Amino acid sequence: MTNSEEKETSILIIYTGGTIGMVQHPHSGTLAPFKFDQIKKEIPELNKFNYNIETVTFTPPLDSSNMSPRNWVKIARIIQKNYNRFNGFVVLHGTDTMAYTASALSYMFENLDKPIIFTGSQLPIGTLRTDGKENLITSVEIAAARKNGMSLVPEVCIYFDFKLYRGNRAVKRDADLFSAFRSVNYPELAVAGVDIRFRTEFIHCNENKGILKVNTQFDDNVVILKIFPGINQQVFNSVFNIPGLKGVVLETFGSGNVPTSRWLINCIKKAIRRNIILLNVTQCEGGRVSMGQYETSLDLIKAGVVSGHDMTTEAAITKLMFLLGQELPVTEIKMRLNKSLRGEISE
């Protein structure tokens, strides 16, 4: 980035809640959110950037366990409202559901040409050993990174513990380690060390240069059903007969396999005949669904189950909710589920 670009760079930080925004009260020792309108005072290291940094704070801040599609829309609307004023956006978010929110935002923004970087921390930013300062400072630097006037990472991403991931490819892998996130099926977009090394060959760029569109409709009449040894017909029938149900993400064994019990396959067939959409993803951390590779998944193809390929569960369920929200015909939804919208599937 040139000096002139640096001087005119503006970054918006959106604090939704989460551990990263907590500081310890000097007298009581309790943790409470710090005042984000004084962020440069709380984190003086940010003053070394010659950026205009502004903040927006959720009131009250949300524990990420309470995040919902309504809150995803709120974040998107804040970004949309400020899109022309800022060069990049940093969203501070609790780690528990960060991968869901990042996946949802990736689908909502069409023709995105600026970075939306999600980050958080495992320890409050006000504690001595916090990982929050590095995560925040580097996220701001990545959000500001430009070359020839163009953002280097025009994607929805997650930055954590020195690594930048595509948002709809990352999953939370550990509740205790600083390396809380991982992307098994897609490489890191950048690695931060002495310098930030951007892996441009893996970064999606908006080649169409179309006008930004923000689609905010979601349909939450969906469920995730994890297949396990001993799952019985009563459980299966109960799930598939939920009133108003429109879609099911099946977490299956290995490359997309389920037990070959006739009642199970018949239940799936009946659901599909009622226009309930079934999307098949693997329970494994890595790899992909390849239905038909084994006899135990052949019946799923015949029944009309859609392959989720190598999507994460977080990317799959938010994509299903997003496409259902667009009120498209079932055949169109199935076609789009089977293709990559924002780099969530390897093609």
Tell me what the structure shows.
It is a single chain. This protein has an 8-stranded mixed sheet, sandwiched between helices. A 4-stranded parallel sheet has the order 17-18-19-20, sandwiched between helices. 28% of the residues lie in helices and 21% in strands. It folds into 2 domains: 3-214, 3-Layer(aba) Sandwich (Rossmann fold), CATH 3.40.50; 222-337, Rossmann fold, CATH 3.40.50. It is α/β, with parallel strands linked by helices and 347 residues long. It is globular, with a radius of gyration of 21 Å. The model has no long low-confidence stretch (mean pLDDT 91). It is an enzyme of class 3 (hydrolase).
Keywords:
347 residues, alpha/beta, Rossmann fold, 2 domains, eight-stranded mixed beta sheet, four-stranded parallel beta sheet, 10 helices, globular
Distance between the termini: 32 Å
Poorly predicted tracts of residues: none
Main CATH class of the largest domain: Alpha Beta
Helix and strand sequence: HEEEHEHEHEEHEEEEEEEEEEHEHEHEHH
Strand order of the largest sheet: 4-1-5-7-10-11-14-15
The shape is: globular
Average pLDDT, rounded to a whole number, is 91
Tell me the number of helical segments per DSSP (H or I, 4 or more residues long). 10
Q: How many discrete structural domains?
A: 2
Please state roughly what percent of the residues sit in beta strands, choosing from under 5%, 5-15%, 15-25%, 25-35%, 35-45% or over 45%: 15-25%
Helix content: 25-40%
CATH fold-type name of the largest domain: Rossmann fold
CATH hierarchy: architecture of the largest domain:
3-Layer(aba) Sandwich
Protein name: asparaginase
GO molecular function, one term: asparaginase activity
Keywords: Hydrolase
Enzyme class: hydrolase
